[in-house]
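ligand=protoporphyrin IX containing FE
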Amino acid sequence: MTLADPSTGRLSVRLREGTRLDHDAAQGSGFLDALVAGKLPREAYADLAAQHWFIYETLEQAAAVMAGDPVAGAFVLPELTRLPALRDDLATLLGARPRLGALPATREYRARLRAVAFEHPWAFIAHHYTRYLGDLSGGQYLGPAIAEAYGLTGAGHRFFVFEGVSPPAFRARYRELLDGLAFSPADEQNFLAEVGEAYRLNIAVLRELKERWA
Ligand code: HEM
């Protein structure tokens, strides 16, 4: 078998293949599996929602800035916006109790978003892809599984539910958007490296959550 030339072919395919190990590491970090198995207290799930809130707050601020960008603007889709759902989930999970604070890894994630995702389309799209395509892939299994494990009926897991979106059709459309990108070779390198960085940041958050709760 010959390996495909990494510089040719559809970006969406090269991206998925090039980040398979990163994804395996994210999937294998243990915290999400422990939630799905109902092994952790409900507060651990609330903490995940809180960390998501901090991350999406900054990511969706970047989206507002990037909406007018000729390249990144195509990825800014209102049906993806997660912040209202997260606010709702946190109200259900924590009620009037004070919000859980951002973990050090979450603060680092936000700092990275602020440093690159408000300015460079390749960086914004890298972070957008890692979160939203993940939410619309594995997240579609995680959401119902976590809801069942913690007895959440109707509320508390809106984050995983994208109203009016068919995940398979959306994923296909998203990959077309990725394949239509005309990055310079340098920007494509930056993009692929930034997806790796986004995975690293997500893994660090999950690791700190595991340390806190497992
Ligand atoms: C227990 C945890 C997880 C499970 C079970 C899971 C499962 C999956 C599955 C089944 C897919 C679809 C693969 C395919 O279509 O070939 C997928 C895709 C994806 N996941 Fe995960 N995942 C998990 C965690 C994560 C995490 C923590 C992230 C990053 C924040 C992530 C990001 C992604 C991305 C970006 C994709 C799209 C890959 C592509 O098609 O380009 N996943 N995941």
